[in-house]
TrEMBL record:
Protein family membership: Belongs to the importin alpha family.
Entry keyword Lyase: no
Pfam families the UniProt entry points to: Arm (PF00514), Arm_3 (PF16186)
Keywords: Protein transport, Repeat, Transport
Species of origin: Arabidopsis thaliana
InterPro entries linked: ARM-like, ARM-type_fold, Arm_3, Armadillo
GO biological-process terms attached to the record: protein transport
Name listed for the protein in its UniProt record: Importin subunit alpha
Length: 363
């Protein structure tokens, strides 16, 4: 029985054995070791047969092996997969309950998308939403790694703001969450996003009449970038995002106010003295004081941290009189900080007491 006969067998064991051997031959042949054998297999219609096998949901191991064969072909002969319209069938595998099937399908789609002339074909096959669904925090690390690679191939050579300019919230929301995951990894990943020009696009989203959850996702993404180093914070400032933080932190629903003060506090924690002075000039003290009466303990601590960082800069940069203390008083912040000495949280009490003793010596 030939290998192709094995693929056409009614027995799953024979199909799997033949698929495994064919994939090995293809892998070696595509790399120039057994060119004629690989060429013969391709000409014999093995791609169509592999597509048929990945549709067999009763045997996940066979689906995986057939997808592995398509992965090899996608890397070296992608036109064949497009001609046979393998894309939609590989995309369907992303819904498999077996992680190893999803992994192999993503490898194949990533290899196909890696050829820029076929990237749009992969997108039109419906890959984006099921691919983004693989990027949740509880995802298997291996799945997350391959999904990120595939997403990278889909974005290669494409202006990153393309998706963030899409008018539909159905597209914007998962894209924003994906960018948020990327910038959470490390400062290098954040810099890649900044270098792509994403900050100006994200800032633009804050000014549009999108639903609250789109603005919240946008705020969260930018807030994560503000945890970076000084140069990245400067990029946020240069994109004119600080005034938008301040505005939204004073003029929106509570959850958006929280995201706003969190971003402001992040900048005070990692910013230079000049950057913090700029924050004060943009009016950031008032929203930090406003949320000192928030029921969320974490937010109160974030606001106290931000105010303490600002007051420290006032002590160092302004001279004998800390003018920032007066700005806090003008925003009714002093009274609120004094009241926090009665708060049920010891951490809040201790932080408030420290600020009062440090900057209002006899209060």
């Amino acid at each position: 029985m030939t290998l192709l006969d094995g693929l056409r067998s009614d027995k799953h064991s024979e199909q799997l054995q033949s698929a495994t051997e064919i994939t090995r031959i293809l892998s070696e042949g595509m790399q120039g070791n057994i060119t004629f054998a690989a060429a013969d297999l391709i000409q014999s219609g093995v791609v169509d047969r592999f597509i048929g096998l990945i549709r067999d949901e009763e045997f996940p191991r066979l689906q995986c092996e057939a997808a592995r064969g398509l992965t090899v072909i996608a890397a070296f002969k992608p036109d064949l997969l497009v001609y046979c319209n393998a894309g939609p069938f590989l995309v369907k595998l992303l819904a498999s309950s077996r992680y190893y099937v999803r992994e192999q399908a993503m490898w194949a789609l990533g290899n196909l998308a890696g050829h820029s002339i076929h990237r749009d074909y992969v997108l039109k096959s419906g890959v984006l939403r099921p691919l983004l669904s693989q990027l949740y925090e509880d995802t298997n690390l291996s799945v997350l790694r391959i999904a990120t690679r595939t997403l990278s191939n889909l974005c290669y050579g494409m202006l990153p703001p393309t998706f963030t300019r899409h008018p539909s919230p159905v597209v914007l929301s998962p894209v924003l969450r994906t960018i948020g995951i990327i910038v959470t990894v490390n400062n290098h990943q954040s810099q890649v996003v900044i270098d792509c020009g994403a900050l100006h696009i994200l800032g633009d989203l804050l000014t549009r009449a999108y639903e609250r959850y789109i603005k919240a996702d946008t705020f969260l993404t930018i807030s994560r970038i503000t945890t970076g180093f000084t140069e990245q914070l400067q990029a946020v400032i240069d994109a004119n995002l600080i005034p938008r933080f301040v505005y939204l932190a004073q003029n929106n629903e509570l959850d958006l106010k929280k995201e706003g003060v969190w971003a402001i506090s992040n900048v005070t924690a990692g910013g230079s003295h000049d950057q913090i002075i700029y924050l004060v000039q943009q009016g950031c003290i008032k929203p930090l004081c406003d949320l000192l009466v928030c029921p969320d303990v974490r937010i109160i601590l974030v606001c106290l941290d931000g105010l303490e960082n600002i007051l420290n800069v006032g002590e160092a940069n302004i001279g004998e009189v800390n003018d920032y203390c007066q700005l806090v008083e003008d925003a009714q912040g002093l009274e609120k900080i004094q009241n926090l000495r009665q708060h049920g949280s010891y951490e809040i009490y201790a932080k408030a007491l420290k600020i009062l003793e440090t900057f209002w010596h006899d209060e």
